[in-house]
Specification:
The chain is mostly helical. The protein is built from four helices and no strands. It has one domain: Hemerythrin-like (Four Helix Bundle (Hemerythrin (Met), subunit A), Up-down Bundle), CATH 1.20.120.50. It is about 75% helix and about 0% strand. The longest helix has 28 residues. The radius of gyration is 15 Å and the shape is globular. Bound molecules: fe (ii) ion. The site of fe (ii) ion has 6 residues, from α3 and α4.
């Protein structure tokens, strides 16, 4: 059984807009986990996946725009991480959108680990940059 993500201060960057977007993403992943664990609700996950796919774009734009504004030196690499996430997820989102696929445990596990790892590692690097500058 998939376990939910427990939000803590460890995930906070200290920028309210970005933190609230991250927290919204984690909430949505937790809904995916809840629904997946309850068979009767699993079909709701298609809508959540499609929402998350769009919301990730919005979030990445906010974050990249901010990093550009502060002249973050590792911006190009950070953008590449976002792009490779999109490449991995867009195909499965399209299948879900066309009704060809239910949201699998593997997809949820991927989202859970990608987002927690990205926030705790890559996003924390720009948090450190901000606190030093
Ligand atoms: Fe990021």
């Amino acid at each position: 059984m998939l376990k939910k993500i427990i939000w803590s201060n460890d995930y906070c960057i200290g920028l309210s807009e970005i933190d609230s977007q991250h927290s919204k993403i984690i909430d949505q992943i937790n809904y995916l986990i809840d629904n997946h664990n309850c068979k009767a609700k699993a079909s709701l996950n298609q809508e959540i996946i499609l929402f998350l796919d769009k919301y990730a774009d919005e979030h990445f734009s906010t974050e990249e725009e901010y990093l550009r504004k502060i002249n973050y030196p590792d911006l190009d690499n950070h953008i590449k991480l976002h792009q490779s996430f999109k490449l991995k997820t867009v195909e499965s989102a399209v299948k879900v959108m066309k009704g060809q696929e239910d949201v699998t445990e593997d997809s949820i596990t991927f989202l859970k680990f990608w987002w927690t790892d990205h926030i705790l590692k890559a996003d924390m690097e720009f948090k450190n940059f901000i606190s030093k500058s």
